[in-house]
Amino acid sequence: MRDIFESTIDSMLGDLVTPALFRLCADGTWPAQLWDAIEDGEFPCAMVPETLGGSGATWDDTYVLIRAAGSHAVPAPLADTLLANWVLGRVGIHPMKGPTSVAAHAAVTCANGRATGLAENIPWGRHLKHIVIVSKDEDPSVLVLDTASAAEVEHRSNVAGEPRDNLRFHHARVVHAVRLPENLSADLLLFGGAMIRSAQIAGALQSLLQMTATYATERIQFGKPIGHFQVIQQQIALLAEHTASTLLAAEAAFAEAADDFSPLPVMAAKICAGEAASVAASIAHAVHGAIGFTDEHSLHLKTRRLWAWRAEYGSQTYWSQRLGRRICASGAAALWPTLTQSSAMNSTTVMESAS
Q1: Which listed residue, of 4, 201, 230, 343, carries a Cα 20 to 30 Å from 195's Cα?
Q2: What is the distance of C-alpha 226 from the center of its chain?
Q3: Do 181 and 90 touch, CB atoms closer than 8 A?
Q4: At 146, which helix (H) or strand (E)?
Q5: How many CA atoms lie within 13 A of 258 on its CB side?
Q6: Other beta carbons within 10 Å of 62
Q7: Domain 2-179: top CATH class
């Protein structure tokens, strides 16, 4: 299944995600043709159980989908919809039609079928029909809210120009409400979001490395390609190291994810991705020189997303602090067993310690 996903998504995105599409989306237009193609391929429902109409794929299977979304800088919430539908499938709700996203940063409560509160930084919020939230009630529930019922919509964007809106609800009707199962953490949207962003960053880094290496072989200076100069070679090698480490860390987090997310691999992947994003963007712009800063060049499509995604669903600093507190709380004797044990054996304990 993974091989089928990889070959199909790369071919489709290569044809549809073009500079013209980015210019169109920059004006606030929804990429309807792209999203129709994504839905025709049934990618948003890949991880929905077969009993609910999906493909029953695992996170390990869909890693290549989300990595490809990052590599092509897809201007649509493919990764976020995959996460939202996976959450719905875990609690027995059929996937929502159309693009759907999650609100990991939401202070929303639910009473008598009505939701009240603020959901912040919702990817593509203005273009969605539904969002998925874990309520902040004493007994949390997975909520599906209709964005049309929001009392207030604040249009915001990240540094890449992607919509990241705030929605405020006031006694809004809840489309679905299911009590959060005991085997799922109330933090699952935050951990899931961090994991998908690490894979998107990994894909963007892969694309950035290819662009930078290609430019270094084509750009002639002092009679030879700049890639022949040792200082450029060293910088590209550093970029390759960060790309490889992020790809491995992100894929490990996806491989460890099963019924819930494995906290340590997710934290490590997001930390690694955040560090790599900063270093890679700096190197790529340095190698490309002045041309890389122009609006016409495609380099900024990747670097601006790296800058944006590294901060979403928890920054490198945030996850480093959580990881550090978890390790310190466990004590020195537990360090090596924690690093080497199977996450499936002790995921609940780790999740509690990571809080």
Answers
A1: 4
A2: 34
A3: yes
A4: strand 141-146
A5: 9
A6: 26
A7: mainly beta
Is the torsion defined by CA of 134, 136, 139, 143 positive or negative? negative
> Within a 10 A sphere around the Cβ of 227, how many other Cβ atoms?
17
d(Cα 119, Cα 121) in Å, to the nearest integer? Answer: 7
pLDDT by position in tens, the chain (length 355): 777 788 889 889 999 999 899 989 988 899 999 999 999 999 999 999 999 998 999 999 999 999 999 999 999 999 999 999 999 999 999 999 899 999 999 999 999 999 999 999 999 999 999 999 999 999 999 999 999 999 999 999 999 999 999 999 999 999 999 999 998 999 999 999 999 999 999 999 999 999 999 999 999 889 899 999 999 999 999 999 999 999 999 999 999 998 889 999 999 999 999 999 999 999 999 999 988 778 888 899 999 999 999 999 999 999 999 999 988 988 888 888 877 775 543 444 333 434 4
Q: Is the dihedral of CA 182, 187, 193, 194 positive or negative?
A: negative
Query: What is d(CA 122, CA 106) in angstroms, rounded to the nearest whole number?
Result: 9
| Sequence spans of domains, the chain | 2-179, 188-354
Domain spanning 188-354 has what CATH number?
1.20.140.10
Task: Tell me the CA distances in angstroms from 272 to 129, 146, 208, one per residue in order.
Answer: 33, 35, 16
Distance (Å, whole) CA 154 – CA 128 = 14
Q: Which two tokens stand for residue 68?
A: 């490809």
Angle, helices 2-16/32-40, rounded to nearest 10 degrees: 160
Question: Residue type for 96, please?
Answer: M
269, 84, 302, 294: CA torsion to nearest 10: -140
Measure Cα distances from 60 to 46, 134, 254 in Å. 11, 24, 5
Residues 6+ apart with CB under 8 A from 1: 55, 57, 61
* Per-residue pLDDT, 342: 54
CA-wise closest residue to 164 among 305, 277, 62, 44: 305
| CA 289 vs CA 159, 215, 278, 294, 297: distances in Å | 21, 10, 17, 10, 11
Tokens of 189: 């949207």
Are 2-179 and 188-354 in the same CATH fold? Answer: no
